[in-house]
Amino acid sequence: MTINDKPIARPARSGLSRRTLFKAGAGLAVAGAASAFPAPFVRAAQTFKIGFVSPRTGPLAVFAESDDFTMAQVRKATAGGVQVGGRRVAVEIIYKDSQSNSNRAAEAASELILDDEVDLIVAASTPSTTNPVADQCEINGVPCITNDTPWQPHFFGRGGDPKVGFEWTYHFFWGLEDIIGSFTSLWSQIETNKTVGALWPNDSDGNAWGDPKRGFPAVLAEKGYGLVDLGRFQSPADDFTSFLIDFKAKDVEIVTGVVPPPDFANFWSQAGQQGLKPKIVTVAKASEFPAAIEAIGDRAEGLSVEVWWSPVHPFSSGMTGQSSAELAAAYTAATGRRWAMPLAFKHSLFEVALDALKRSEGPGNPDALREAIKTTNYASIVGPVNFQTGPVPNVSKTPLVTGQWQREGKSLELRIVDNALASNIPVQSTLVPIGAKG
Amino acid sequence: MTSQTPPPLPVTVAPAPARAPAKYAVTLSTRTSRVGETLLLVTAIALCLMPWWGDRSLIRTSTEFLYILALAQMWNMLAGYAGLVSIGQQAFVGIGGYCLVVFGVQMGLNIFLVVPVAAVVAALVAVPSALVLFRLRGAYFAVGTWVVAEVFRLLTANASVVGGGSGTSITAAVQGIPVWWRDALTLWGAVILGVGAIAAGYFVLRSRYGLALQAVRDSEAASGSLGIRVRRMQWMLYIASAAGCGAIGAIIFISKLRISPSAAFSLDWTTTVFFIVVIGGIGTLEGPILGTILFFALRGLLSDFGSWYLILLGAVAVIVMIRMPDGLWGWVLRRFNLSLFPTRRRLDRTP
Lengths: 438, 351
What we know:
By secondary structure, chain A is of the alpha/beta class. Chain A contains 15 helices and 17 strands.
């Protein structure tokens, strides 16, 4: 879907364009003639085009539920244009679906760069979208801002060198050290036998989390946890019997992992059928979303998960002025849906993009824009973003806490139960073992 | 010709009728076929010169068009001429793609020189695959090809040297090449594969091998009884198609820059060409061209509609399959007897 603020004049092109051919081919003679004599380009230079790639369809579609709302907010915030160095610049967002597929994500990015000639690309939601998009931007020299992928799979997964970094691509999110630290802190809240069963799929996330050196295994051993790891499984998976037999035999009381929602729903219902009763289940990706939790039903009560943003996070948006609670409330009012973490992260992508635009030299000057992104020091709805202070170049870290789905009347609410790594985010409750009435 | 001419058969020639007897000749070329040949040549030249006259966006789209067309021709060659329905051609696309990682990124070979290497590797891998697959027939063969592709996907996903299930970026191998050369070389590679697949198919199918192949397609048993070595023909085509898919895989992932087992060995590669060939017209050289044009047009118009795009694509396929079982070009062929790249011999009355 392309969202236009207003009709935009065609940009200058050197040769015959694909669109020109396409329209002519489709028999749209008028359009063909119009593009043969393009309008003057005075106005085109005043439009800043942002390409936005997100998994609107496919297994990760739940990450993109808030995209339409976010784009409507950005459109409203930039309705009168943005002041850049004394002139008004119109902002246009061009939205592309990655179909949760890295081939399609690369294609979408390349279309945005070559066909739409965007000034900046923003992308989010797991390595299958952010990595191929960032690779296309890096090789084609287009500034790119991404989030919602732990920084290690994003940086090292693309062959990043901590001494050099990347030239065009910038990323903000938490990392494996945060997830490991907050999970183990969460688990120490209640008494268990410290035996952890792992569900790590054979994908970018699963391989990073299960990496013997950089991932969970080393830290778990250090902190005295026993690990039951049957190796990486192929997602999508519909039969977890081998995991369940082993988990039961070794008396697993804590289940963790990073599992796509449909796979986890299979695992958890089979665990119920086969009588695995862990005290703690902290599985990322699968239990981050109200929609996925509702699909699991009553058995979702007590699942815990990392929380990268919530309505109680003490941050506010520089684009709309809303606090975290106000943003969540506005989303529910507009769509009837409950808040989910990507809402704020998608919002923050555009906050950081517009902040960089204001400090740049406007459209058509990628080098200045890159410098502006590089020197970002911005208070966003997901926390401070500063690419100079990250663990590796081009990366900025955002805070991470953990929460649990606890019953509140009829529905389940995600409450923050541990904040060991980000004490500025308030705790709402404490961890309750699954099945215990808290 | 033997030196001794056999004596003429004792045939009594009937007295000449009032009108001269009609003469017939077997012809392959027609006026439209000469138009087709010229058109192909002109298009190929125009495409090769595109880096000088087109912009990057057009080059990128043309490259994609050509590699999808080449892939469709590879599948058409198997299903339309050898009677081998494969739903596992993604195995060779993936192998070609992963050759980029092994030979390009890890061994430092120029990424464009990897393309022919990928063809050779894919052909070599096709030999043992064929040994297993050719024990199966029909639907079992089709399922078998898919199984082989899945085996390769899982093997790659568990090979941590090439990045395992996470996949890997090949930007490092492309970084040093200037943009103009990267675009141009990728396009030329795609032109060689796309136009080459049509040209090669055209010349092979018009040769005596082509005649044999078309006989095999129509009836394996009958052509076998006429002395055609059916299995050998199918073997050769299977391996040639694998080599083509390998080279195409390398070109595809040079433009995608990132490869992972699920992307490289994706069933989408085969379902896309399945759609294209079935819509366009199976067993013709023009069909895949028409199908690819239609596919790109539909994608350009509808791909922003999310899941509806796929539903519409499916609906188009169902309608065409019911209304025109031999595809759009099959309909043209029947209706107008028009063929740009005729591979059928026809009996024409000469004046």
